[in-house]
Amino acid sequence: MNNSILVQPLSTFASWIECRRLPQGEVGSVNPDEIYCPERVGHVAVCILDELLVWGGYHERRLGYGYCTGSEVWSYNLDLDRWFKYVPHGNSPEFASGACSAVVWPYWYIFLGHNLNGNSNEMSRLNLQTCTWESVGPEMRISPRDKSVAWVFGSKIFVFGGYGVSPYTTYLWNRETDVFSKENWNDERGWDNQIASFDTLTNQWHPVETRGPKPKARAAHSAVRVGEAVYIFGGRSGGMRMADLHRLDLLDLTWSGELSCQGQRPEGRSWHTMSALSRHKLVLMGGYNTSGQILDDLWLLSLESMSWSILLQHSNRFRLWHTSCANSMGDVLIFGGCTNDILDNSRRMEASDHVLTVRLEPFSLERLCMHRLWRNGYSNQAGWDSLPRSCQLWLEAYKRSNSEINRRIYRCNATSLHGPSLRQLTVLQPDQANYINMNIFELERWRALEQRLF
């Protein structure tokens, strides 16, 4: 997405404010799911400026399991350390896990995935200006699937690979170039290496003819577009989880073949994420290897030297089937995901509701100054009117967020996985959250005592 199109956060739009759902009731009676985005796996996420949007996914809890509702969109702001829940207008898409999403302004497209009826090839979009769901129904569709990857180039959304039903019926498919690799135990489901594009101007799917050695059929892989190329890494094909890296030139649609990289390379994996920190640096995090181990490593791929380097070998933050997005300030925000062996049927799946951050550079001086102004607001608030309008709006947003302290249970939402400590900002840390909660509960206890006495 071209962030220059948007000059203000979505949360300040009147349409989004109208759809915001704030928690009701007193402290202690509020459902935490009304305050913080519930844990999940297989969701989709995107960053719009400095706001992380999350939709869909799947969860398992002590009281049951199921798909996360499709009617809700959650938004997280790292600088505010705050989640907001929205219920957009219109008919929401059906809940799903393993879906794809892509932003072609002003729409956030959500499509494919898996639900109670099996694999899906439905598509919906969220109008980011009006906070309204809209259905998209092209005549010809690609086959139902989940765990595909998608990227945007111009006005088109490209999709590669996935796991789903056999495409040999009325779906868009080229028998000469597209490969469908069947599952050993099920002739009707398997992996594919199809590449197709959705034209957002005509609302139609089209086949994409490419040159060069096409990657193997796969699912649960990762893809990152950098400029005029897209990079594909890993994924599962049959019983193998791969560690191959491919590049597709988006101008002449030519595949590179497996790229040779210097240095130690990450082991084969699926259900991982890869994000762009810049035009020359990609970050790879977590996943699930062929041996059935959940991974907690963090890797950096330099596109200038085509070399891998390890940032963290053992972070103790195990994640698979999570999301990873870069905001406009250079933070990579990793949310959700499974924290134990997802294929171990003897144990309940444990998912995360926490945000991990990755940064390679210090916070900007302006950003640090704004947080310092807020911390010392008791002594400098009288001079806020002399600040630039953008700074005033930032401080006002922080003030509004913190004004709800008396009906919130505070907690730390984010942890720095790599890079500068979040203590440099005003993001709550566990000890700070515990202190606030202690004071809230103490206040409530004294209020209850006063009501009994008087």
Automatic annotation (TrEMBL):
It holds the Pfam family Kelch_KLHDC2_KLHL20_DRC7. InterPro entries: Gal_Oxase/kelch_b-propeller, Kelch-typ_b-propeller. Keywords: Kelch repeat, Repeat. It comes from the Eukaryota. PANTHER family: KELCH DOMAIN-CONTAINING PROTEIN, KELCH REPEAT PROTEIN (AFU_ORTHOLOGUE AFUA_4G14350). This is Kelch domain-containing protein 2-like. It comes from Elysia marginata. The lineage of its organism: Eukaryota, Metazoa, Spiralia, Lophotrochozoa, Mollusca.
